[in-house]
Design brief:
The complex is a heterodimer of chains A (about 120) and B (about 160). Chain A has five helices and two strands. With about 120 residues, chain A is mainly alpha-helical. Chain A folds into two domains: about 70 residues, Winged helix-like DNA-binding domain superfamily/Winged helix DNA-binding domain (Arc Repressor Mutant, subunit A), CATH 1.10.10; about 40 residues. With about 160 residues, chain B is of the alpha+beta class. Chain B has a single domain, classed as Alpha-D-Glucose-1,6-Bisphosphate, Chain A, domain 4 (2-Layer Sandwich). In chain B, about 25% of the residues lie in helices and about 45% in strands. In chain B, strands 1-2-8-7-6-5-4-3 form an eight-stranded antiparallel beta sheet. Chain B is globular. Chain B starts with 6 loop residues before the first strand and ends with a helix. Classes of the chains: A mainly alpha (about 120), B alpha+beta (about 160). At the A-B interface, helix 1, helix 2 and helix 5 of A face strand 1, strand 2, helix 1, helix 2 and helix 3 of B.
């Protein structure tokens, strides 16, 4: 499980591959279609797709001539872990917010005291 | 006093993410921390990045935009304040690296009394796959997190 997760993470560590995955969320695409927005060789694009395939993030259909690339949404069955990481990031953010609010409390108190005296 | 931890829920029926978290602050203080650009820049993150607010027009239909920077990396985010009331903010959110993906965020500050407030933050995206990819990439808060660090975190859990 952890191994697959590391593989998925490694596969998603590249911005082009992350972008490909994001684009595949709206539907299957051929290698040519996936290559369109990038200024890299078709060979490089194929290599990126092979990495995603090896990690189980995408599959290639064998039925159609164009062999469209399909996003394997069940990869995100590792969701529990993803969700926990996301939650921790949110918690980190809200701890920073706690500190800001604490400062605001101090300022409000000081102002009130200032007004009272 | 124990700090209430953020809780998160990925809805099964609608592609959204819900986060709730309690704060030792009033709803109006939370509202201020979300709408005052100087205060907002101090906490929004991502962790370890400096945030510069580029546009900040807090009114119905006003736009916001900020850049998060660390070393030579920069990530920009933008959106519009659709509706801002006393205790709610409805806004759009886009990471400029993926300009076609827009999420709809609803923030609601629930007054718990005694100077405590529960924040409800909800993000709605287009598809379940997009929602899951969003969670997986940590797009909102952790775009730049090193994946090595990430492995360590996941390994520890």
């Amino acid at each position: 499980m952890t191994d697959q997760l590391s593989q998925v993470m490694a596969a998603l560590s590249d911005p082009i591959r992350r972008d490909m995955v994001a684009r595949l969320t709206s539907g299957d695409a051929t290698v040519g279609q996936l290559a369109e927005p990038y200024e890299v060789s078709m060979q490089a694009v194929s290599k990126h797709i092979k990495v995603l395939e090896a990690a189980g993030v995408v599959t290639r259909s064998r039925s159609a001539q164009t062999r469209p690339v399909h996003l394997e949404a069940q990869v995100f069955d590792l969701m529990g872990k993803w969700v926990e990481r996301y939650r921790r990031q949110a918690e980190e953010r809200y701890r920073r917010l706690d500190a800001v609010l604490m400062d605001m409390n101090d300022t409000d108190t000081t102002q009130r005291e200032g007004t009272a005296s | 006093m124990t700090t209430a931890q953020a809780s998160i829920e990925a809805d099964n029926d609608v592609p959204l993410i819900r986060i709730t978290r309690e704060f030792q602050a009033t709803p109006s203080q939370l509202m201020k921390a979300h709408t005052d650009s100087d205060l907002f820049a101090r906490w929004v993150g991502p962790d370890g990045m400096d945030v510069e607010v580029l546009e900040w027009d807090v009114r119905n239909g006003g736009c916001w935009r900020y850049a998060a920077r660390r070393d030579d990396q920069e990530y920009r985010f933008r959106g519009c304040f659709h509706t801002v009331t006393e205790a709610t903010i409805v806004q759009t959110f886009t990471f400029e690296g993926m300009p076609d993906d827009v999420s709809l965020q609803t923030l609601w500050f629930e007054d718990l009394g005694d100077g405590r407030t529960r924040l409800h933050a909800q993000s709605l995206v287009d598809t379940f796959a997009a929602r899951d990819a969003w969670l997986a990439s940590g797009m909102e808060t952790g775009v730049t997190e090193g994946y090595a660090k990430l492995d360590a975190i996941v390994g520890a859990s």
